[in-house]
Amino acid sequence: MKHTARYSRRRFLSLSSGLLAAPLLAGISPRLFAHDMSAMPQAEGHALRLPAPYKLKLAINQSAVCIAPVTVAEQQHFFSKYNLDVEFVNFGSSTDLLLEAIATGKADAGIGMALRWLKALEQGFDVKLTAGTHGGCLNLLTSKDSPFTRLDTLKGQTIGVTDMAGPDKNFFAILLKRHGVDPIADVQWKVYPADLLSVALDKQEIAAISGSEPFSYRLLDSGKYRLLASNMSGEYANLSCCVVGVSGSLARDRQPVAAALTQALLDAHSYAAEHPESVADAFMAHALNTNVKEVAGILHGQAHGHHAVGPAFVNELTQYVSDLQRVQVIKPSTDPHQFAESIYANVFA
């Protein structure tokens, strides 16, 4: 029953956010605020369509469920609508290599998780972020009968992760800090292979485990575990998890291409917010070890109707940078808003 409640609540958040995306499907370009529809100018349906076909390479983790709307985007003609000929460059789960590929010209653009990319971008990669694509993806789980019912009860405990630099580890470090638990001094983080995290939790070697989908969905669906926290609750339910990044040269020299690509990707996620089953069905041609029901359930639980561009997106990035400073990931000397503006490209201007 708890899992059903989680599904319904997260579905409500997704549908609520989806109201913001409706103009995208109607052909309105989100040039100013994703969250303030009155500030969005009215544009013709194909205002961003390129005058001639343009080929580009898009770096993604093609098997990631949250990327499903992008993987199958051309089946709904979201790329060809803007005269884009998109070739996918699959980098698996290596988000660091994906970002490097964009910066070095091996790919023109890519999609990744903000909480993974921001530290790398602080180092000076020539990549510009153009939009936030959706919310969701990150979950913190514990055993169904665990005594740890709130984040503050994790003080003095060990949390299992798959990557010490992962976006989930960064995010739950931020949440712990906000709940009075020092994520550096008050808890331990222990790395496990993904398939051993639940085993360690069952053995009570650790108090909680963090991860993304479909890992979390499957554990919750088993009925043996419960959700302790996620980025689909509180203020973070209204922040983008994944972002679009384009090469600096594309943003500077071919802004219309960057705008067309960004809009096509937002269109794809808007479609997924309204038609998760259709996207899940099409995704089966690319998916590994999953099924339509599982993918649709995961998409329902994420906020694919939530997009951010313009000042709204800069504000989201600013919040993330400030949060990462509090957990000693971003340098304390970095000005959060200035940094956010420096890595953002307003391709819709």
Description:
Residues 67-277 form the SsuA/THI5-like domain. It comes from Serratia rubidaea (Serratia marinorubra). It holds the Pfam family NMT1. This is ABC-type taurine transport system, periplasmic component. The protein is of the alpha/beta class and 349 residues long. The protein has two domains: 54-136 and 239-343, Periplasmic binding protein-like II (D-Maltodextrin-Binding Protein, domain 2, 3-Layer(aba) Sandwich); 138-230, Periplasmic binding protein-like II (D-Maltodextrin-Binding Protein, domain 2, 3-Layer(aba) Sandwich). 41% of the residues lie in helices and 16% in strands. It contains 13 helices and ten strands. The chain has a five-stranded mixed β-sheet with strand order 2-1-3-10-4, sandwiched between helices. It has a five-stranded mixed β-sheet with strand order 7-6-8-5-9, sandwiched between helices. α2 (68-71) links the parallel β1 and β2. α12 crosses α13 (336-343). The radius of gyration is 19 Å and the shape is globular. The protein starts with a helix and ends in a 6-residue tail after the last helix.
